[in-house]
Automatic annotation (TrEMBL), chain A:
The chain crosses the membrane at residues 24-46, 67-90, 96-117, 138-169, 175-193, 205-224, 270-292, 304-325, 356-385, 406-424, 430-453, 465-485, 505-529. The lineage of its organism: Bacteria, Bacillati, Actinomycetota, Actinomycetes, Micrococcales. NCBIfam families: sss. Its main location: membrane. This is Cation acetate symporter. It is a multi-pass membrane protein. Belongs to the sodium:solute symporter (SSF) (TC 2.A.21) family. Keywords: Cell membrane, Membrane, Symport, Transmembrane, Transmembrane helix, Transport. PANTHER family: CATION_ACETATE SYMPORTER ACTP, SODIUM/PROLINE SYMPORTER-RELATED.
Automatic annotation (TrEMBL), chain B:
It comes from the Bacteria. The chain crosses the membrane at residues 33-55, 67-89. Pfam families: DUF485 (PF04341). It comes from Arsenicicoccus piscis. Keywords: Membrane, Transmembrane, Transmembrane helix. This is Membrane protein. The keyword Membrane applies. Signal peptide: none annotated. InterPro entries: DUF485. The lineage of its organism: Bacteria, Bacillati, Actinomycetota, Actinomycetes, Micrococcales.
Length: 562, 115
């Protein structure tokens, strides 16, 4: 798709090394962020007790506002910051469609999940799911899907890090990038080990403030260049695309359909993706765990309110940033930069404010990866230590000290997996992993959460069928979909855009890239059938306790340890 | 966990609270708010998604300058999300919380304080 550079002399042509800005400034600003957050993490964790509650949920002592900002910091990952801006820059309106699903999804969390979950659980998603069902099998199932979702999400974050390093630090060798990925992973591990959930939360709060301020600044700056008229920004993107002779009608940037409108399959694929986005958020374990960091359900409600305001505002910014990058940087420069679409926002920052602005955005992007991965690591370590080690293996007999110690081991293990995964995935085409994480969360987690909270006759078999059915069906459908193998080869490179680039290997039979449209209804159905066909009667006494507690908040004394 | 009463007793107390008219009212009030609202925003979201997929011509109709119906509908998704959030928070603060607090007191009386 990229045109020869000679055709576009009007562009700010970048040095041949294909990186922009001053790597020293980028590293400097990032180092400053690391130092400041590290000091904060050490200070906030100095007085903390060493209890499980302290490590997993920061003693449930955050306010709704603080937690809401941290949720925004956790949720606005590199994929949404860099990915959506880039998608809008290159594909126009269809990129915007993503952000709407990501935002509307929060209403599911607000209306159906956050408060009731806060009132019935303490540390993990499995706490709620196993409340009135048989502990060990349900915990194990919930822990399995938690680890799966978090692993896919984590790998997607780390894989993006390599391209970012190439773009921002001018490190182009695989080895150099691996070193940087390892450094980022080790830093993240340090935050989690020193600060637990409290430290992680503060990193996310600081990052969210920086991200939203930085994005707001670029948005105002871009709008200022176009007389504060969104319509003119969009016209600018059309004009630049026309001047660069893109392959499609440049007017199409403003309309739906450029990416998903090709044929019936892509349209159904888009609907499938939309289902996963809107139903997946309230099933992401690292998002659910954040609701335990506040003392009451009222504060959990306030958390989601704050998160919705901040996330909504941010996605409005990305609309301007995306079209702005299309207008001022142009598709050719974006496509030829390392990281392609992900480079749109950093390149726009460079165009507007030179090396310093790029440095700020670069540091924010690194901080984003750091903060999101730290949140995922806390979640996986809590799941491993609390659900698998204590509840399943030790049958609830482990002491708090043993559990926290196990959680720290798990955090180290998780960090090593993140680093190795990041290095192996570097440069691989695994962007679909985020969509997969949402699809698994929407299929394996959300149906069981909703049934647990609202359906009296839900049973253990229903939970197991729903969790494993949702998990396995979405995984199988992805493996046999065109994202893994069998997309037609690119005539220029002779390689397939699938994950397996060899075009002769083709074992796909599922036509869609997103499994949600099949796996989500299937998981709901399995949860229903499993409960109906279970010989075991639903536990009415536990249901009474769960329902009364979930609505009244009785027994949810968050800061109190048992 | 140190409950202030033996388990059988506690279970009976929870069941009694669950059957009480106050609790039944609280539950039905909550369900009457959240279920229709969820049905509404999901229907509106999927209507938008379906229009974007199957009626691109309609969505591409220009309204002002380059601002077309698709963009306006997209921005309206933001507006309805914000509006539902505000409405729910107001409702929960005024209607739900006082009643939930009453139930909480009732449970405390039956079973004992938070444990």
């Amino acid at each position: 798709m990229a045109l020869p550079q000679t055709l576009v002399p009007a562009l700010p042509v970048l040095p041949a090394a294909s990186n922009v800005g001053n790597p020293l400034i980028n590293i400097g600003i990032f180092a400053a962020f690391v130092v400041v957050t590290l000091i904060v993490v050490i200070r906030v964790s100095a007085h903390g007790k060493k209890s499980a509650g302290e490590y997993y949920t920061g003693g449930a002592a955050f306010s709704g506002k603080q937690n809401g900002i941290a949720i925004a910091g956790d949720y606005l990952s590199a994929a949404s910051f860099l990915g959506i801006a880039g998608a809008i820059a290159l594909q126009g309106y269809d990129g915007f469609l993503y952000s709407i699903g990501f935002l509307v999804a929060w209403l599911v969390a607000l209306l159906l999940v956050a408060e009731l979950l806060r009132n019935t659980g303490r540390f993990t998603m499995a706490d709620v799911l196993s409340f009135r069902l048989r502990q060990r099998p349900v915990r194990l199932a919930a822990a399995t899907s938690t680890l799966a979702v978090s692993f896919f999400y984590l790998l997607a974050q780390m894989a993006g890090a390599g391209g970012l390093v190439a773009l921002l630090l001018g490190i182009n060798s695989q080895f150099g990038q691996s070193i940087v990925i390892a450094v980022v992973g080790l830093l993240m591990m340090l935050y989690v080990l020193i600060g637990g959930m409290k430290g992680t939360t503060w990193v996310q709060i600081i990052k969210a403030c920086l991200l939203i301020t930085g994005a707001g600044l670029i948005t105002l700056w871009t709008l200022g260049k176009f007389g504060f008229n969104l319509s003119s920004v969009m016209q600018g993107a059309v004009d630049t695309a026309a001047a660069e002779k893109v392959k499609f009608d440049p007017q199409k940037l403003l309309d739906p359909g450029l990416r998903y409108g090709k044929d019936l399959t892509t349209k159904i694929d888009f609907i499938s993706l939309s289902m996963a986005l809107v139903l997946g958020t309230a099933g992401l374990p690292h998002v659910l765990m954040r609701f335990y960091t506040v003392p009451t359900s009222k504060e959990a409600r306030k958390s989601v309110e704050w998160a919705i305001w901040l996330i909504g505002l941010f996605y409005l910014f990305t609309l301007v940033i995306g079209y702005g990058a299309g207008a001022l940087v142009g598709p050719t420069a974006i496509n030829s930069a390392p990281g392609k679409a992900n480079a749109a926002a950093p390149l726009l920052a460079f165009h507007l404010g030179g090396s310093v602005m790029l440095g700020i955005i670069a540091a924010i992007a690194f901080a984003t990866i750091l903060a999101v991965v730290a949140g995922l690591t806390i979640t996986t370590s809590a799941t491993f230590a609390h659900d698998i080690y204590n509840m399943v293996i030790k049958r609830g007999t482990a002491t708090q000290e043993e559990e926290v110690k196990m959680a720290r081991f798990a955090a180290v293990g998780g960090s090593i997996i993140a680093i190795l995964g990041g290095i192996l995935a570097n440069g691989q085409n695994i962007a679909f992993l985020v969509a997969l994480a949402f699809a698994v969360a929407a299929s394996a987690n959300l149906p069981t959460i909703l049934y647990s909270l609202f359906w009296k006759n839900f049973t253990t078999r229903g939970a197991l069928w729903s969790i494993y059915g949702g998990l396995i069906s979405s995984l199988v459908l992805i493996i046999f979909s065109p994202v893994v193998s069998g997309k037609p080869a690119d005539p220029k490179t002779g390689l397939s855009p699938s994950m397996i680039t060899d075009p002769s290997i083709n074992f796909h039979w599922f036509p869609l890239e997103n499994p949600g449209i099949i796996s989500i209804p299937l998981a709901f159905l399995l949860g229903f059938l499993g409960s109906k066909l279970d010989k075991e009667k639903p536990n009415e006494a536990k249901w009474a306790e769960m329902e009364v507690r979930s609505l009244s908040g009785h027994g949810a004394g968050g800061a109190i340890d048992h | 966990m140190s409950a202030t009463r033996p388990p059988a007793d506690r279970a009976a107390a929870y069941a009694a609270v669950q059957r009480s008219p106050e609790f039944t009212e609280l539950r039905s009030k909550l369900h009457r708010f959240v279920f229709p609202t969820t049905a509404f925003f999901l229907a509106w979201y999927f209507l938008y998604v379906l229009l974007a997929a199957f009626a691109p011509g309609f969505m591409s109709t220009r309204v002002v300058g380059n601002i077309n119906i698709g963009l306006i509908f997209g921005l309206l998704q933001f507006v309805t999300t914000f509006a539902i959030t505000i409405a729910y928070i107001r409702w929960a603060d005024r209607q739900f919380d006082p009643r939930a607090a009453e139930i909480h007191t009732m449970v405390e009386r039956e079973i004992g304080g938070d444990y």
